[in-house]
Batch of 3 targets.
Target 1
Amino acid sequence: MKQLGRSIFLLLISVLSLSAQDPKPDPKAATTAAMVEECKCTIIPFKPEVPCFNYCATSLVARATLEELLVAFDLEEASARRIVAWEDRNEATSLEDYVKAHQITEAEAQGIRKRINSLDKAQLEYFRKPRWERVLIMTEQRKQLFVYE
């Protein structure tokens, strides 16, 4: 009985020591940290174009509300709703990921690219605000903030 207790104790120590080791590094987290450092998502156009446009654009789209997708990015309602409901939207690394996942069409991806490249400083600052603040602004100033010719 003592031998069994000792075996269980040693097994438990082994399991605990394995779980206490550093987990494998997440390559996506390292890439994201590098992108935050390298990319200036506060200045349009995002530079360097590759890979910063993908990083900054997908960050904007992933954080966007349904209304922002409709108004700021001029998406069809069905596409905007698919994006909002898509569980992996925070995992996308390019607009092409949205196309491949059938969330938007290639034409919509090009439209988003065009809209993002035409954002002015005030619009870009708007997207940097917390969601609750953006919702208030969008409610009050929707027509003044995102007017496209």
Target 2
Amino acid sequence: MIESTCLMIQGEQRSEIDLYHQNSGFGDEFRQLSDISEQWRLPQRFCVADHRDVEQVVRDENANVQTRLASLQHWLVASPDNVAVYVADQLDDQDDLDLEWLKTIVRAADSVVFPPDRLETVAKSLLKAASQFRDRDEFGAAEICWSAIHRAGSLLPVNCIARLLPFLENSGEVDTRLVVLQAIFSMVEVEPLLDKNFDAELYSRIEKLGRSNLEPDVFCAGETSAIGIECLMALAGLSPGRSNPLCVCVSVLNRTWLSRTIAGRYRELLASWRQVSLDSDSFGVLEDDLASLALVDE
């Protein structure tokens, strides 16, 4: 008889996918991301079987996905470090995985802490999975694609930021532009990109996308405005030493709510950078851009 171990979880362990908080009110599709994290919320207390037993079920490729998923959740509580390594290995071997199981592994990637030496390879594997689901026209593909990009962005070293470039094109079944822009901004929000990591192609592509969404005859509330705002913020972090060309587009639009929204984001960005004690010269240009936005707001 296999001995069972009862584990008490203090509070609620959960993984939050919060790509949308800064643009609350724009559209509906990204709220579906919260549904993914809901599937990985764990109850406050429950009993799990011996982790060696549930591990065997998880590794059993002949078991159905729901059974493996339930066991994976128990294993995650009992042995999170081992699950992290398992998820990383599964992502590396994703070409051999059943599609439904790959969806589960992508979701699980947002609930584990990967070993430091696996971060970059896991990020690359997640972007590979995102590319696969991006081209699939089926229910749930978009959520998995967005989740993979979001998690990859949190793992990529800043010198690999250009790996996100392909997802700026709206060329698949799933539109990834807004999610990847938010992922890019999350990478530079804590600290601006150093000159040695500057990628001219990435900067140019984002500027072009931003201009197209901030055109007076195109601009409207919703996804279009959200993409325009995220392009502007991404440029601010990618090259803080140069004046943001999209601020001129905002001035031309002359929308008070838009100027206030971006000015608020700029203040948050500057506050974040000041927390890491950056030299004020590193973001002096951003303060000038902020002043120009304030003039529009008057």
Target 3
Amino acid sequence: MLFEQPSARREILQWSLFTAIYVIVVGHLASRRLLWSDEITSVMMSRAPGWGVLWDSALHGPDTLPPLNVLLMRLTRLPQPWIELGARLPSIFGVWLAALSVYSIIRSAARSEAAWCGVFLLLMTAALPYAVEARPYGLLLGCSSAAVALWVYSNRSGASPLVTGALIATLLVAAVWVHWFGVLAWFVVGILEVWQFRLRLRPQLWLPLVAGGLLCLPLFPFAMHAKEYSAVMVWRIPDVWSLWTLYAGLLPASTLVLGLVIGVVGAREGSRTSATQNETKRLAPALRSAVMLALIPFLGYLLALGGVGVVTVRYTLAGAAGVSMLIALALVPLVASRRTLALCTCLLAAGAFEEAAQIKHDMTEVGAVRNQIGPFSILRTGADSGDVDLPILVSDIHVYLPLIQYAPTSLAHRLVYVTGQNPQATFQMERYAQWFPVRTLSQEQAFAATRFLIYVAGDDLLLPGALNRGWHVSAEPLGINPQTFPRPGYLLLAERIP
């Protein structure tokens, strides 16, 4: 499919170099970035004591997604201090696969320089941050993009529709098994096939797709679990503004600025050249695939309106591949000079590195917490004050989960999540308690004690609850955590007034 031109050796060398740099940069970020609450959910599930327990926790536990991502995370898990890297290896691979797919699609119709423009544009979008997140969105992007790339390849002479159909079906099944919105990739491939061949559909392609659909039937119990979970969630009803935010979230400002610069360069070049009819015909399959991938956020929006109720940028991340390809393919009929295309590639490569640098700048590193620069230094302040046995109550799930993930053993057993503050979080934590070693108390149970510590951070309602009950709360915090992870907070001592 790839590297069949006389320049194959040069392109293989380029891809080897790109892969090495990608693995080094993204692996570095993935190994140092702290896990956040949803990632910790996936990590806990992947580290279940057995495959059966893992499957059951995916079917009845605190997450609502299909199980393939956590199954893969179990295969890639690594010991300390590489837990974060091991958990994110599937996502790292998924975004790399998406980059390869973008390159393949554009390369089928244009020069390698244009294909590299598409790759670096992809890494400047919202795709790169999800390469360093232990959730299924990177894999969803990779499987969806690769399925479309194989569809483009299936249109070439010499390609076996039956073999490519089987591979496409495998990728589409995998997309659904990692995330429910993977079903959008099925619509994309189906629409592309109808668009390309009208009523002359290829049974060698459709039969594997139908068979692949049957492999999604075992997900029905997981869908029922997700439906039960969604019943307690409060979703914002999608509107036209939601559609705008989906596309705006895919493209950071830096991508738009560089796209504008490249557009100006292309316009100048376009005054000197124009695409031939053969070039336009060669572009057609790639352009159609780019359009359909770029429409995935719109399809996700329609799916949310149709009853799913929620759609976010990460659910429709495959749209980033489509938008990247559209911008890169727009250069093909405009830019005649190979040198100009190479310059555009260099600009976009610099933009991709800037995006990686921004991720590193914004993240909190694992070492900051493990060296006690973060929240645990102030938790220890409570221990040093003599309150070594008092429970430390937390009422924000997004604070509690990172705390128990990274807390030393001496502190982890003291951390308690207080339910009832948020119905959604309470529902989720009740399922956590069924499968994982977490401690939960209701508000009534928590306030039955005479003294406890409150870690005030995030959406905390424990402090107002204590004050409303007439408790004495220390005027001066025992410790202050200015760190951004889990969230800025402080530690207070609460005592019941006799």
